[in-house]
Write a structure and sequence with these properties.
This protein is an alpha/beta fold. It is 26% helix and 22% strand. Helix 4 links the parallel strand 8 and strand 9.
């Protein structure tokens, strides 16, 4: 009997897709942000591959396997590796770049990092998305202005099937940011929910979503600013305490979200689900160089994927891994390059 084309095909391991931006980052380091009409001389400038989508894809890939440079694996041993190992996690990026000076190199770099880029389109006549990042020299705080460019080309019609969520393969977990057009992401979440695909939403840049979609989201991971913007329960002054964070979490639980995480920068992260609620401190043994990088999603996702194999989900452990991964990234300047591997997450790195 022929197989049903509507059903996911059997695969070895787990597939994670990321729907998000593939951007070119431009970073400057300044003593302070300029005031209105003021020009401030920067003490440093760099260009690097970025985008929250790309960052998350590389983070998930690396944090589900050891660094091959630290543990070379003979080819014969690799062939005999049992299925279900973390290294059987396949990461696929779904996004777009322009056919300009930035786009093709960004796509190639992502592929070189181990991420499948079959779902990353190169669009003629379109500009690759860019991000302008201002980093304060003393406290390493950052401000980001993002121009989505070609990322806005996606429409709801692009994500009507389960395979479209994984660049041609049905994923086990879909991670999405809001760097793509909002209506496209809303449809992707709707399609994933209809097909029983787990969804992790990192709502950045923050944007209103239809309330009925939240019941299809298994993991909502956001920072303090995004939590305030997306929730009508509290103001910006209230997110700084546990009571305010609990109100936010409960509001999203009422909408149907299973796991809510609010990242708190130097204060760590708050978490909540129907079985646990609490706070995880940020890593203390960490030398902060640049807080614009991302590692939390990778660490959190790696722990969640492990739980899907073992059947034991511990949100606190996942948040703790996310905080550790974040600490390793902010010890260096940049976004993709500093992301650590699974066997490096417990070891602070000197800048």
């Amino acid at each position: 009997m022929a197989s049903d084309p509507m059903l996911p095909q059997k695969r070895v391991g787990q597939t994670v897709s990321i729907l998000g931006g593939v951007l070119q980052d431009f970073s400057v380091v300044t003593p302070r942000p300029p005031d209105d009409g003021e020009t401030v001389a920067a003490s440093g400038f760099s260009m690097a591959p970025g985008g929250k989508g790309s960052n998350s894809a590389v983070a998930v890939y690396r944090l589900t396997r050891p660094n091959p440079k630290n543990r070379p694996l003979p080819s014969d041993e690799a062939k005999e590796r049992p299925t279900g190992h973390d290294e059987d996690v396949h990461v696929r990026m779904v996004g777009a770049v322009g056919a300009d000076q930035f786009g093709p190199p960004l796509r190639s770099n992502l592929e070189g990092c181990g991420v499948n880029v079959a779902g990353v389109r190169i669009e003629k006549g379109q500009q690759t998305g860019v991000a302008m990042i201002v980093i304060e020299a003393d406290n390493k705080a950052n401000r980001i202005v993002m121009h989505p460019g070609v990322n806005q080309i996606f429409k709801a019609s692009d994500f009507m099937t389960a395979k479209s969520l994984g660049g041609g393969i049905v994923p086990d977990l879909m991670i999405c940011q809001l760097e793509l057009h909002r209506e496209a992401i809303e449809q992707a979440i709707e399609t994933a929910g209809r097909r029983g695909i787990d969804v992790l939403l990192n709502p950045s840049p923050a944007s209103f979503l239809m309330p009925e979609l939240y019941r299809k989201i298994k993991h909502l991971v956001m920072n303090e600013t995004e939590a305030v913007l997306l929730s009508s329960e509290i103001g910006s002054d209230d997110i700084g305490n546990q009571t305010g964070r609990t109100k936010v979490a409960e509001s999203f639980h009422e909408l149907g979200v299973k796991n809510v995480v609010i990242t708190l920068g130097a204060q760590g992260a708050y978490y909540s689900n129907d079985g646990a609620r609490g706070h995880v401190d940020a890593e203390k043994n960490c030398s902060v160089m640049d807080t614009s990088g991302a590692g939390f999603i990778g660490g959190y996702t790696a722990e969640y994927l492990k739980s899907k194999r073992t059947g034991k989900w511990d949100i606190e452990s996942a948040v703790r891994q996310g905080c550790k991964a974040s600490a390793r990234v902010i010890e260096h300047v940049g976004r993709l390059e500093p992301i650590c591997w699974a066997d490096e997450i417990d070891t602070p790195r000197s800048p």
